[in-house]
Amino acid sequence: MQSADVVIDATDNFATRHAVNRACVKFARPLVSGAGVRFDGQIAVFDLRRRDSPCYHCLSRKTATWRKCAARNGRVRAAGGVIGSMQAAEALKLLMGIGRDLTGRLLLLDALAMEWRSVRLKRIRSAPSAAAKIR
Fold first, then answer.
1. Distance of alpha carbon 96 from alpha carbon 34, whole angstroms
2. CA neighbor of 45 nearest in space, from 80, 2, 13, 92
3. Are 6 and 48 in contact (CB under 8 A)?
4. Where residue 135 falls among pLDDT bands split at 50, 70, 90?
């Protein structure tokens, strides 16, 4: 993790997602997070090199209902493919230092309607800081 330039998280386990987030915060590494359940998906970038950037902890507080749904339902791989492709594009933009990445925004995909929605994310006070230890 310490030598990574960008971290891409596509895990389906929330404990793992939080552990990856804590490591990215500790080592100030950008995190490209993507998830999917049924025909829905979400993607966000947490550029933890920036002091004001939200992190996955900030997102997980905002999407608690979605998280409960994800634990009970399967994934539709077509939605996952769209989210994975978006994650790759975001990682490339971060690595090359080009374009406008998704830091501070969450994109939500409704693949049944094939519509995207964007939600602003803000850093919350209880978010882990760079001084936090990895458990």
1. 20
2. 92
3. no
4. very low
- Provide the whole-model pTM: 0.83
| CA nearest neighbour of 32 among 107, 115, 131 | 107
Q: Give residue 116's identity as a one-letter amino acid code.
A: W
Question: What are the pLDDT digits (tens) for 19-71?
Answer: 999 999 999 999 999 998 888 999 999 999 998 889 898 887 655 554 555 55
The 105-110 sheet, strands edge to edge? 7-9, 30-37, 40-47, 105-110, 115-120
**Distance from C-alpha of 111 to C-alpha of 92, rounded to nearest angstrom:** 24
Output the furthest CA–CA distance in the chain (Å, rounded): 42
Among 44, 43, 65, which residue's Cα sits nearest to residue 111? 43
Q: Among the listed ranges 4-13, 65-74, 115-124, which one has the minimum average pLDDT value?
A: 65-74
Closest CA to 36 of 12, 17, 18: 12
Instruction: Report the CATH architecture of 7-120.
Output: 3-Layer(aba) Sandwich (3.40)
